[in-house]
Amino acid sequence: MITVRRVEVEETYALRAKVLRNGGPPEAARVPGDDDPEVATYAALDADGGVIGCVGLFPEPCPDLPDHPGRGWRIRGMATEDGRRGQGIGAKVLGAALEHVVEHGGGLVWCNARTPAARFYERAGFQVVGEPWDDPEIGPHVRMWRAV
Ligand SMILES: CC(C)(COP(=O)(O)OP(=O)(O)OC[C@H]1O[C@@H](n2cnc3c(N)ncnc32)[C@H](O)[C@@H]1OP(=O)(O)O)[C@@H](O)C(=O)NCCC(=O)NCCS
Hints:
Bound molecules: coenzyme A
CATH class: Alpha Beta
Helix content: 10-25%
Structural class: alpha+beta
CATH topology: Aminopeptidase
Largest sheet: 7 strands, mixed
Strand content: 35-45%
CATH superfamily: Gcn5-related N-acetyltransferase (GNAT)
Number of strands: 7
């Protein structure tokens, strides 16, 4: 059985590093602002308590939509364990993050999406804003957002 709940960000570093930092050490997964008490991290845990999915929510305005009413929340560190993808785990974890935003008054949720993940975000109601760009280390990206 899989459960989704809020966790300490450190609990997700190993998965984040493995999936998003090319298998680097857990410290490589740290991002600025992780220790902000307003940052919220959600994870999917398997029956043994292992973290198999994660996402972080950071209070931060969307650079492309500065006049949008409501608070801006940036999604970072969205990852599902390789081998467990395509089973709805990412959707559940992202859903918990969107619920967190609802509980905190709603607003605008956005992310710099890796192009291969754009369809995943589209299915969760996100749309593209601005022009795509290429991150020399990570690859092509597109910014996506949705109101919550
Ligand atoms: C993007 C990601 C978090 C989605 O998690 P997930 O648990 O597979 O999500 P779900 O099962 O809810 O949805 C699957 C959808 O994700 C997308 N997807 C992207 N990469 C995928 C992959 N390698 N395997 C399966 N689905 C993938 C597909 O659009 C798929 O939709 P489909 O079922 O219509 O084909 C996950 O694929 C992942 O960790 N990818 C690598 C890291 C990454 O790109 N993170 C996002 C950074 S912005």
